Amino acid sequence: AREVHLASRPEGFPTGDNFDLVEVPVPTIGDGQLLVRNIVMSVDPYMRGRMNEGKSYIPPFEVGQALSGEAVGEVVASNAPGFAVGDKVRHFLGWREYSAVDAAGAAKVDPDAAPLGAYLGVLGMPGLTAYAGLLEIASFKEGDTVFVSGAAGAVGQVVGQVARLRGAKRVIGSAGSDAKVKYLVEELGFDAAFNYKDGPVGEQLAKAAPDGIDVYFDNVGGEHLEAAIDALTLFGRVTLCGSISNYNTTTPAGVRNLGLAVGKRLTLRGMLVFDLEHLRDQFVREVAGWIAEGKLRYRETVTEGGLDRAPEAFIGMLNGENTGKALVTL
Ligand code: NDP
């Protein structure tokens, strides 16, 4: 069996040299564990943070050891009550062909209810991040004008549509290519969208939202966050979800206009999706319902060809090559 190790810590943007594909024995399982043959795995922006040394909300990956991340696979041996051979489970020991998973860290998924990849995207962690981050963290309410960055990605594509379906006055998105902008407006029903590479974000946002914005869902940080602070109305709310523009640089951008938050009485609130499990059932019910009714659409960018292509898929995602959730099939 094979797994992907961290070969070295990246300086700035990761390269293929930071990863090693290593041959290891298929793991043996102890009491209360499952042996899972992985079928599809997720590559996520937060993994870039774990490649750095240092203290964070989640421990760093170790050089010379396997990476990990969310994956869905099939149980091929079970030493745990409640799990049978053939069950499909979601767990956090991806980046390897076979995983020995504690039953407590595995959740069954229903392959008949949705394609397996959806459990890592629109109906999984990124979907919950979008749903809970908008409704709970930003206290979204009907009639709000909402701006989301990274809008054509796994989280962003759901944020904009939940806002639209829950009665936003206007939904605006930014993304890094014209094709993504087209996807947002023509397929997902955003009211306006722009390519942030076309010119200053502040100018483009002011055009797209002439009356300002009430909510900003921040996936990007830096210039986007500054532009949003400028555009926010009194008592505006910001979900600080991620700041991907700073993940691959050793000189992260500051936010120079934070002082405006005082007079505007803004709320800027950080979030981690792990705190928002209490909304999972409601999220799955509502979003799965919208998908079934054809009201909410999503894309996935699937890299086929197994674990050897996982580093390439991860780097591609950081470069914006994905639309919707970036996945790797094994
Ligand atoms: P995406 O599917 O959105 O993929 C990442 C995207 O980021 C790329 O496709 C690219 O799109 C965009 N991007 C890359 N570099 C830049 C840049 N310099 N400026 C602007 N955009 C850039 O990933 P996710 O939806 O999985 O994650 C989105 C954000 O949400 C990330 O910041 C992530 O860390 C965060 N997150 C936070 C969670 C939490 O609990 N707080 C949970 C899950 C995700 P483009 O072509 O538009 O540039």
TrEMBL record:
Entry keywords, A to Z: Oxidoreductase
Q: Name the source's superkingdom.
A: Bacteria
Is-annotated flag, keyword Oxidoreductase? yes
Q: Which Pfam families match?
A: ADH_N_2, ADH_zinc_N
Xref: SMART domains? PKS_ER (SM00829)
Keyword Oxidoreductase attached: yes
User: Where do transmembrane segments lie in this chain?
Assistant: none
Q: Name one GO molecular function term.
A: oxidoreductase activity, acting on the CH-CH group of donors, NAD or NADP as acceptor
Q: Where is the Enoyl reductase (ER) domain?
A: 16-328
- Gene3D superfamilies registered for this protein in UniProt: Medium-chain alcohol dehydrogenases, catalytic domain, NAD(P)-binding Rossmann-like Domain
The parts of the chain that form a coiled coil are none
- Put simply, this protein is called NADPH-dependent curcumin reductase CurA
